[in-house]
Amino acid sequence: RCETCSEKEAKYRCPRCMRYSCSLLCVKKHKLALSCNGVRDKTAFVSVNEFTDLNLLSDYRFLEDVGRTADAAARHPTVHSPTTRRNLYCLRNKARKCDIDLRTLPIGFTKRRENSTTFNNTEKKFYWHLKLVFPHCHAEYTLKRVPDDKTLAEILKPYIDPVESDPVVCQRLKMYTASPQSDVQILMKIENRKQNSVRYNELDASKSLLDNLKGKIIIEYPTLFVVLKTLKSDMVVLGQDAAEPAANSDSEGSSLSSMEEGEIRDST
């Protein structure tokens, strides 16, 4: 049976999430409901017992694609452009003066292409490229030119405020709009940690975006995770784990290993 309408016999199976659908309409509905792009995940885990020659061939082609992407990025003219390097240096320098460790990626990485963060020298403030992730509803939104003096509560108001939010967004995020504002928790992943030790910082919704980013490492642009305290989440907040102190102590090890791996996958 179709897993979307539960009425007709299924004819298609999504390469991404493996859900069955009976028609194009149901395919579109399931993509919208689950934020599924329908593209097969080339990096999905396959156990040794299920590993076949097709999986081996897929991995080989994936590595070839990665090599071509890296080579094309190295040959990109903007890599050797003095203007590009100067602008990135100025942006990182301005962030450092605000006590923000801003790090940029090489040309070819997805986040590097997406990033639209700028610094206005006249107003003396950042306009950030920002991504909001609502994991309980499988929804993501990208914001551009967000002023750094805007509070997080003001940024989230068009999305989770039951009165001021857009009707379409409100319907999709009804789990958030129906919950009291006191249950909303804003988290940001701590970079420069080991892959088996992922932790998040809790941000203050009443403070500005700039104040919340101070003292933190940002890879290209901030990504904020909006979660509900009443729902179980596997996101461990630093300081709430009994095994760790509340201080923001970045562990040693490869600073960009996990991030680079994910970005290389995205860039292909």
At the fold tier of CATH, the topology name of the largest domain is Ubiquitin-like (UB roll)
- The CATH superfamily of the largest domain is Phosphatidylinositol 3-kinase Catalytic Subunit, Chain A, domain 1
CATH class of the largest domain: Alpha Beta
The CATH architecture classification of the largest domain is Roll
Radius of gyration: 21 Å
What is the domain tally?
2
The SSE string, one letter per element, is EEHHHEHEEEHHHEEHEEH
Which regions are unreliable across 5 or more consecutive residues at pLDDT < 50?
245-268
Produce a short descriptive summary.
This protein is of the alpha+beta class. Helices cover 34% and strands 18% of the residues. A hairpin with a 4-residue loop joins strand 5 (125-134) and strand 6 (139-147).
Please tell me about this protein's structure.
GO terms for molecular function: zinc ion binding. This is Box C/D snoRNA protein 1. Required for box C/D snoRNAs accumulation involved in snoRNA processing, snoRNA transport to the nucleolus and ribosome biogenesis. Residues 249-259 have a biased composition (Low complexity). The protein has 268 residues and is of the alpha+beta class. It folds into two domains: 12-75, no CATH class; 91-228, Phosphatidylinositol 3-kinase Catalytic Subunit, Chain A, domain 1 (Ubiquitin-like (UB roll)). It contains nine helices and ten strands. The protein has helices spanning 24-34, 53-75, 82-97, 110-114, 152-160, 167-172, 174-177, 209-213, 257-267; strands at 12-13, 20-21, 101-103, 118-120, 125-134, 139-147, 184-189, 200-203, 217-219, 223-228. The strands form three sheets. Strands 4, 5, 6, 7, 8 and 10 form a six-stranded mixed β-sheet that branches. Strands 1-2 form a two-stranded antiparallel ribbon. A two-stranded parallel sheet has the order 3-9. Strand 4 and strand 5 form a beta hairpin. The radius of gyration is 21 Å and the shape is globular. Mean pLDDT is 80; it is low at 245-268.
